[in-house]
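Summary for the steering committee. One of the milestones for this cycle was to obtain a three-dimensional model of the protein with magnesium ion bound, which we needed before selecting residues for the alanine scan. The sequence and ligand used are listed below.
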Amino acid sequence: MGLTHTSTGAGAADAGLIIDRRSPEDRVIALAGNPNVGKSTVFNALTNLRQHTGNWPGKTVTNAQGRHTHRGRDYILVDLPGTYSLMAHSAEEEVARDFLCFGGADGAVVVCDATCLERNLNLVLQTLEITPRTVVCVNLMDEARSKGIEVDTAELSRLLGVPVVAAAAGRNEGLGQLMEAVADMAAAEEAPHTFRPGYPSAVERALARLEPVLARRLEGRLPARWTALRLLDQDPSLLCALEKFLEIDLMEDPEVRVALLEAQAGLKEEGLDQESLRETVVASLVRAGAEIAGETVTFHREDAARRDRQLDRILTSRATGIPVMLCLLAVVFWITIAGANVPSALLADGLFWVQDRLTDLFAYLQAPEWLHGALVLGVYRVLAWVISVMLPPMAIFFPLFTLLEDFGYLPRVAFVLDHAFQKARACGKQALTMCMGFGCNAAGIVGCRIIDSPRERLIAILTNNFVPCNGRFAPP
Ligand SMILES: Nc1nc2c(ncn2[C@@H]2O[C@H](COP(=O)(O)OP(=O)(O)OP(=O)(O)O)[C@@H](O)[C@H]2O)c(=O)[nH]1
Ligand SMILES: [Mg+2]
């Protein structure tokens, strides 16, 4: 499942906003993007680290840092959790937003999926509102090519007003150009004038009331227009973050309070409450994204997309999704159990032969019986059992599971089972951690971090023990 020491150990602990700068010349670049677009793959390729990558969203949940040297300058890359927006509706969104706003980054790279650029542009536009020092990396170009999707990166760059680089990080393509663009962006004296999504006139009027007041208060430490939008959205987490990272209490300032009340009253007059304001803002971003994608993305082969949709229907429909899943899991378990028998028996024979020789050695040395009992019949024998029973099924189960993950089948399992899990007040993603539990409960429990809600995560952790890991069902 790709759970490595770096992805689960102390190195994975939330580095927060603390950046390990070795020199003032170091440039800090945040890697943002939607879930599962290849941010960690770009990060790993450039830093030679091993962040967890895999074909399902939500693997990276905390910031990770690594270094890359380009043209003699050191860049600190920060791999952010995947998010669809920066409006801080989830823990990942808050982590990503806080870093972009307060992490002191010199710029951002927004990694996008070339096969569904339109959806990814939403985050690009939100990032541009926070920092114009952005490079867009259109990743997964190989996938897009095989699906007959063409992205006009030059036109995209012209429309967005920032550099756009095509890449296939999985194949190490385009990363040199990406770092060139990042270096140019970091070296530029002036930030570029980027595309700015427009909102309906009522929202623009409210923003115009708030923006100048905030600009005076924030003194360039955070973009006033974006902060005004978040204040109108009554985002309490931003106020907390402002206090925590910039020590600014906006609500203490009477001028800000008055401007906010007036702007809110104006919106109310136009019939926009908090809920409809949020919908209007999101709709404007989605519309702008769709317009830009319409001008830059060409679909050459509709049949490839149709084939994908047909496959998706088979794998996720109510009638066929569950039988296909049961068949696939049955095949995985059969291969694991039947396939593990032979290496298990060989390992047991070998390790117990060594145990007999150790017993001979202890007898030859006339060691006391209690020492032989403790070391050979205790420590060694237990270790030999654990290795011979658990290692072979794990060595078969996890690669098979990784294969299903790489084909993108696991998120579909979560989708198919979500309804049933919801009935038990749990989350569909728990299906993935339970499947991992069949391989190893410890890995399954660690994997529960992909579940957003703390309550659902706790349920998944507590119930994972009821999944018999293969050490419990594999014959010796
Ligand atoms: N074909 C292809 N696959 C890629 C490419 N880049 C990444 N991948 C695959 O895409 C999947 C997701 O990659 P990750 O790097 O884990 O994505 P991420 O954006 O870090 O995901 P989260 O941390 O969950 O947000 C993995 O299976 C990668 O191997 C690429 O250029 N081409
Ligand atoms: Mg990641």
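Key point for the committee: Residues 39-40, 51, 59-60, 79 surround magnesium ion (ligand 2) (CB under 6 Å).
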